[in-house]
Protein backbone atom coordinates (compact mmCIF):
# COMPACT_ATOMS: atom_id res chain seq x y z
CA UNK A 1 0.00 0.00 0.00
CA UNK A 2 1.39 3.38 -1.01
CA UNK A 3 0.38 5.92 1.64
CA UNK A 4 1.26 9.51 0.85
CA UNK A 5 -1.06 11.96 2.57
CA UNK A 6 -0.34 15.61 3.26
CA UNK A 7 -3.45 17.83 3.11
CA UNK A 8 -3.00 21.57 2.67
CA UNK A 9 -3.98 22.33 6.27
CA UNK A 10 -1.01 20.28 7.48
CA UNK A 11 1.38 22.77 5.88
CA UNK A 12 -0.48 25.68 7.46
CA UNK A 13 -0.40 23.92 10.83
CA UNK A 14 3.39 23.55 10.72
CA UNK A 15 3.80 27.24 9.97
CA UNK A 16 1.40 28.11 12.81
CA UNK A 17 3.29 25.92 15.30
CA UNK A 18 6.55 27.67 14.50
CA UNK A 19 4.91 31.06 15.06
CA UNK A 20 3.28 30.06 18.38
CA UNK A 21 6.33 28.35 19.87
CA UNK A 22 7.65 31.59 21.36
CA UNK A 23 4.46 31.92 23.44
CA UNK A 24 4.83 28.59 25.28
CA UNK A 25 7.03 27.43 28.16
CA UNK A 26 6.96 23.68 27.54
CA UNK A 27 5.87 21.20 24.85
CA UNK A 28 3.92 17.99 25.30
CA UNK A 29 4.64 15.47 22.55
CA UNK A 30 1.96 12.78 22.43
CA UNK A 31 2.84 9.37 21.04
CA UNK A 32 0.74 6.23 20.76
CA UNK A 33 2.17 3.63 23.15
CA UNK A 34 1.41 0.88 20.63
CA UNK A 35 3.68 2.47 18.00
CA UNK A 36 6.05 4.93 19.75
CA UNK A 37 8.48 4.98 16.84
CA UNK A 38 5.94 5.39 14.04
CA UNK A 39 3.84 7.97 15.90
CA UNK A 40 6.84 10.22 16.52
CA UNK A 41 6.69 12.99 13.95
CA UNK A 42 10.25 13.52 12.63
CA UNK A 43 9.69 17.21 11.89
CA UNK A 44 8.70 18.08 15.48
CA UNK A 45 12.34 18.16 16.60
CA UNK A 46 13.02 20.85 14.01
CA UNK A 47 9.99 22.83 15.16
CA UNK A 48 10.49 22.88 18.94
CA UNK A 49 14.32 22.83 18.98
CA UNK A 50 15.52 23.29 22.61
CA UNK A 51 12.15 24.04 24.18
CA UNK A 52 11.53 21.87 27.33
CA UNK A 53 9.57 18.76 26.36
CA UNK A 54 7.65 15.92 27.99
CA UNK A 55 6.99 12.85 25.87
CA UNK A 56 3.63 11.27 26.67
CA UNK A 57 2.94 7.71 25.56
CA UNK A 58 -0.83 7.81 25.46
CA UNK A 59 -3.25 4.88 25.18
CA UNK A 60 -0.79 2.82 27.22
CA UNK A 61 -3.74 0.72 28.42
CA UNK A 62 -4.10 -0.61 24.86
CA UNK A 63 -0.42 -1.54 24.62
CA UNK A 64 1.39 -4.57 26.04
CA UNK A 65 2.43 -3.75 29.63
CA UNK A 66 5.69 -5.70 29.27
CA UNK A 67 6.61 -3.71 26.18
CA UNK A 68 5.66 -0.44 27.93
CA UNK A 69 8.45 -1.17 30.41
CA UNK A 70 10.91 -1.71 27.57
CA UNK A 71 9.99 1.63 26.03
CA UNK A 72 10.28 3.38 29.40
CA UNK A 73 13.81 2.02 29.81
CA UNK A 74 14.61 3.08 26.24
CA UNK A 75 13.56 6.70 26.78
CA UNK A 76 15.20 6.92 30.20
CA UNK A 77 18.53 5.88 28.66
CA UNK A 78 18.18 8.85 26.30
CA UNK A 79 17.36 11.16 29.22
CA UNK A 80 13.89 11.85 27.80
CA UNK A 81 11.18 12.81 30.29
CA UNK A 82 8.45 10.24 29.62
CA UNK A 83 5.02 9.50 31.06
CA UNK A 84 2.69 6.64 30.19
CA UNK A 85 -0.94 7.71 30.20
CA UNK A 86 -4.52 6.73 29.61
CA UNK A 87 -5.91 10.21 29.06
CA UNK A 88 -9.43 8.85 28.49
CA UNK A 89 -9.57 7.79 32.15
CA UNK A 90 -7.24 10.51 33.41
CA UNK A 91 -4.52 8.10 34.51
CA UNK A 92 -1.15 9.86 34.71
CA UNK A 93 -2.58 13.40 34.93
CA UNK A 94 -1.19 14.17 38.40
CA UNK A 95 2.25 12.88 37.40
CA UNK A 96 2.16 15.02 34.25
CA UNK A 97 1.31 18.20 36.16
CA UNK A 98 4.02 17.54 38.73
CA UNK A 99 6.68 16.95 36.07
CA UNK A 100 5.55 20.03 34.13
CA UNK A 101 6.01 22.24 37.19
CA UNK A 102 9.42 20.72 37.84
CA UNK A 103 10.65 21.35 34.29
CA UNK A 104 9.46 24.97 34.34
CA UNK A 105 10.48 25.77 37.93
CA UNK A 106 13.34 28.11 36.94
CA UNK A 107 11.08 30.16 34.67
CA UNK A 108 8.36 30.42 37.32
CA UNK A 109 10.91 31.62 39.86
CA UNK A 110 12.05 34.33 37.45
CA UNK A 111 8.45 35.48 37.10
CA UNK A 112 8.09 35.67 40.89
CA UNK A 113 11.36 37.59 41.19
CA UNK A 114 9.90 40.18 38.80
CA UNK A 115 6.78 40.44 40.93
CA UNK A 116 4.59 38.43 38.57
CA UNK A 117 2.36 36.12 40.62
CA UNK A 118 0.28 33.14 39.47
CA UNK A 119 1.35 33.39 35.85
CA UNK A 120 0.10 30.24 34.10
CA UNK A 121 2.56 27.85 32.51
CA UNK A 122 1.78 27.75 28.81
CA UNK A 123 1.94 24.36 27.13
CA UNK A 124 1.85 23.43 23.46
CA UNK A 125 0.46 19.97 22.70
CA UNK A 126 1.81 18.27 19.60
CA UNK A 127 1.06 14.92 18.07
CA UNK A 128 -0.15 13.09 15.01
CA UNK A 129 -3.90 12.83 14.30
CA UNK A 130 -5.97 10.52 16.52
CA UNK A 131 -3.30 10.15 19.23
CA UNK A 132 -5.55 11.62 21.92
CA UNK A 133 -4.66 15.32 22.22
CA UNK A 134 -8.21 16.57 22.72
CA UNK A 135 -8.96 13.77 25.18
CA UNK A 136 -5.90 14.78 27.21
CA UNK A 137 -7.06 18.40 27.27
CA UNK A 138 -10.52 17.34 28.44
CA UNK A 139 -8.96 15.31 31.25
CA UNK A 140 -6.70 18.16 32.34
CA UNK A 141 -9.43 20.79 32.18
CA UNK A 142 -12.18 18.64 33.67
CA UNK A 143 -14.60 19.68 30.95
CA UNK A 144 -15.58 18.80 27.41
CA UNK A 145 -14.26 21.95 25.81
CA UNK A 146 -12.16 20.28 23.13
CA UNK A 147 -13.88 18.39 20.35
CA UNK A 148 -12.98 14.74 20.16
CA UNK A 149 -13.82 11.97 17.76
CA UNK A 150 -12.66 8.64 16.48
CA UNK A 151 -11.55 10.10 13.17
CA UNK A 152 -8.30 12.01 12.62
CA UNK A 153 -8.45 15.71 11.90
CA UNK A 154 -11.21 16.74 14.34
CA UNK A 155 -9.17 19.67 15.71
CA UNK A 156 -8.93 22.30 12.96
CA UNK A 157 -7.62 25.42 14.71
CA UNK A 158 -5.41 26.50 17.61
CA UNK A 159 -7.15 27.21 20.90
CA UNK A 160 -5.96 28.12 24.43
CA UNK A 161 -7.58 26.19 27.28
CA UNK A 162 -7.07 26.83 31.00
CA UNK A 163 -6.62 23.72 33.15
CA UNK A 164 -5.85 22.71 36.70
CA UNK A 165 -2.29 22.85 37.98
CA UNK A 166 -1.78 26.40 36.74
CA UNK A 167 -1.40 25.26 33.13
CA UNK A 168 -2.74 26.88 29.99
CA UNK A 169 -2.77 24.56 27.00
CA UNK A 170 -2.51 25.35 23.33
CA UNK A 171 -4.29 22.60 21.44
CA UNK A 172 -3.13 22.19 17.86
CA UNK A 173 -4.41 20.19 14.90
CA UNK A 174 -2.74 16.83 14.39
CA UNK A 175 0.14 17.05 11.96
CA UNK A 176 1.58 14.33 9.75
CA UNK A 177 4.58 14.78 7.50
CA UNK A 178 4.85 15.07 3.72
CA UNK A 179 5.88 11.52 2.89
CA UNK A 180 6.26 8.21 4.70
CA UNK A 181 9.72 7.03 3.71
CA UNK A 182 9.16 3.71 5.47
CA UNK A 183 6.16 1.70 4.32
CA UNK A 184 5.89 0.10 7.78
CA UNK A 185 5.45 3.49 9.42
CA UNK A 186 2.57 4.29 7.08
CA UNK A 187 0.94 0.94 7.84
CA UNK A 188 1.28 1.42 11.59
CA UNK A 189 -0.34 4.85 11.40
CA UNK A 190 -3.15 3.41 9.31
CA UNK A 191 -3.65 0.54 11.79
CA UNK A 192 -4.31 2.91 14.72
CA UNK A 193 -6.52 5.22 12.66
CA UNK A 194 -4.22 8.22 12.20
CA UNK A 195 -4.92 8.14 8.48
CA UNK A 196 -8.51 8.37 7.33
CA UNK A 197 -9.93 4.99 6.33
CA UNK A 198 -11.72 6.67 3.42
CA UNK A 199 -8.45 7.08 1.53
CA UNK A 200 -7.21 3.55 2.23
CA UNK A 201 -7.89 0.06 0.93
CA UNK A 202 -9.15 -1.28 4.27
CA UNK A 203 -9.30 -4.87 3.03
CA UNK A 204 -5.58 -4.90 2.25
CA UNK A 205 -4.92 -2.98 5.48
CA UNK A 206 -6.81 -5.52 7.58
CA UNK A 207 -5.07 -8.39 5.80
CA UNK A 208 -1.69 -6.83 6.66
CA UNK A 209 -2.73 -6.47 10.28
CA UNK A 210 -3.89 -10.08 10.48
CA UNK A 211 -0.58 -11.24 9.00
CA UNK A 212 1.35 -9.27 11.64
CA UNK A 213 -0.81 -10.48 14.52
CA UNK A 214 -0.44 -14.08 13.34
CA UNK A 215 3.32 -13.71 13.87
CA UNK A 216 3.35 -11.62 17.04
CA UNK A 217 0.05 -12.23 18.88
CA UNK A 218 -1.40 -15.48 17.48
CA UNK A 219 -3.07 -16.44 20.76
CA UNK A 220 -4.95 -13.14 20.87
CA UNK A 221 -6.41 -13.79 17.42
CA UNK A 222 -7.39 -17.36 18.24
CA UNK A 223 -9.08 -16.44 21.52
CA UNK A 224 -10.89 -13.38 20.22
CA UNK A 225 -12.35 -15.03 17.14
CA UNK A 226 -12.47 -18.64 18.35
CA UNK A 227 -10.35 -19.88 15.46
CA UNK A 228 -7.27 -21.98 14.94
CA UNK A 229 -4.39 -20.43 12.97
CA UNK A 230 -2.19 -23.46 12.37
CA UNK A 231 -0.56 -23.21 8.94
CA UNK A 232 -3.30 -21.06 7.46
CA UNK A 233 -2.55 -18.05 5.28
CA UNK A 234 -3.65 -14.55 6.38
CA UNK A 235 -6.44 -14.66 3.79
CA UNK A 236 -7.69 -17.99 5.14
CA UNK A 237 -7.67 -16.57 8.67
CA UNK A 238 -9.59 -13.51 7.50
CA UNK A 239 -12.15 -15.74 5.82
CA UNK A 240 -12.54 -17.86 8.95
CA UNK A 241 -13.07 -14.74 11.05
CA UNK A 242 -15.66 -13.57 8.53
CA UNK A 243 -17.42 -16.92 8.66
CA UNK A 244 -17.46 -16.90 12.47
CA UNK A 245 -18.87 -13.36 12.53
CA UNK A 246 -21.46 -13.95 9.83
CA UNK A 247 -19.82 -11.57 7.39
CA UNK A 248 -21.32 -13.00 4.24
CA UNK A 249 -23.05 -11.67 1.17
CA UNK A 250 -25.57 -13.27 -1.17
CA UNK A 251 -24.39 -16.70 -2.25
CA UNK A 252 -22.49 -17.34 0.97
CA UNK A 253 -19.34 -15.50 -0.09
CA UNK A 254 -17.30 -13.64 2.52
CA UNK A 255 -17.97 -9.91 2.84
CA UNK A 256 -14.32 -8.85 3.03
CA UNK A 257 -15.10 -5.19 3.65
CA UNK A 258 -17.27 -6.02 6.66
CA UNK A 259 -14.79 -8.40 8.27
CA UNK A 260 -11.96 -5.93 7.61
CA UNK A 261 -13.90 -3.20 9.39
CA UNK A 262 -14.50 -5.50 12.37
CA UNK A 263 -10.83 -6.49 12.72
CA UNK A 264 -9.52 -2.94 12.45
CA UNK A 265 -12.13 -1.56 14.83
CA UNK A 266 -11.51 -4.23 17.45
CA UNK A 267 -7.74 -3.77 17.24
CA UNK A 268 -8.06 -0.01 17.71
CA UNK A 269 -10.36 -0.43 20.71
CA UNK A 270 -8.09 -3.03 22.31
CA UNK A 271 -10.76 -5.72 22.07
CA UNK A 272 -8.29 -8.16 20.51
CA UNK A 273 -5.96 -7.55 23.45
CA UNK A 274 -3.12 -5.34 24.67
CA UNK A 275 -0.90 -5.17 21.62
CA UNK A 276 2.35 -3.30 20.90
CA UNK A 277 3.54 -3.33 17.30
CA UNK A 278 7.03 -1.89 17.88
CA UNK A 279 9.92 -2.61 20.20
CA UNK A 280 12.72 -0.13 20.93
CA UNK A 281 15.50 -2.70 20.48
CA UNK A 282 14.69 -3.13 16.79
CA UNK A 283 12.80 0.10 16.07
CA UNK A 284 10.00 -1.81 14.42
CA UNK A 285 8.78 -5.27 15.31
CA UNK A 286 7.21 -5.83 11.88
CA UNK A 287 9.31 -8.00 9.59
From TrEMBL:
SUPFAM superfamilies in the record: P-loop containing nucleoside triphosphate hydrolases (SSF52540)
Keyword rRNA processing among UniProt keywords: no
Keyword terms: Cytoplasm, GTP-binding, Nucleotide-binding
Pfam families according to UniProt: MMR_HSR1
Keyword Nucleotide-binding included in the entry's annotation: yes
CDD domains: YlqF
Cited InterPro entries: G_CP_dom, GTP-bd, GTP-bd_ortho_bundle_sf, GTP-bd_ribosome_bgen, GTPase_MTG1, P-loop_NTPase
Main location: cytoplasm
Residues at which GTP binds: 58-61, 86-87, 130-135, 174
GO molecular function: GTP binding; GTPase activity
Entry's localization field: Cytoplasm
Limits of the CP-type G domain: 14-178
GO biological process, alphabetically ordered: translation
Assigned GO CC terms: cytoplasm
PANTHER family: MITOCHONDRIAL RIBOSOME-ASSOCIATED GTPASE 1
Function: Required for a late step of 50S ribosomal subunit assembly. Has GTPase activity.
Family statement: Belongs to the TRAFAC class YlqF/YawG GTPase family. MTG1 subfamily.
Name under which the protein is recorded: Ribosome biogenesis GTPase A
UniProt source species: Tissierella creatinophila DSM 6911
Primary gene name: rbgA
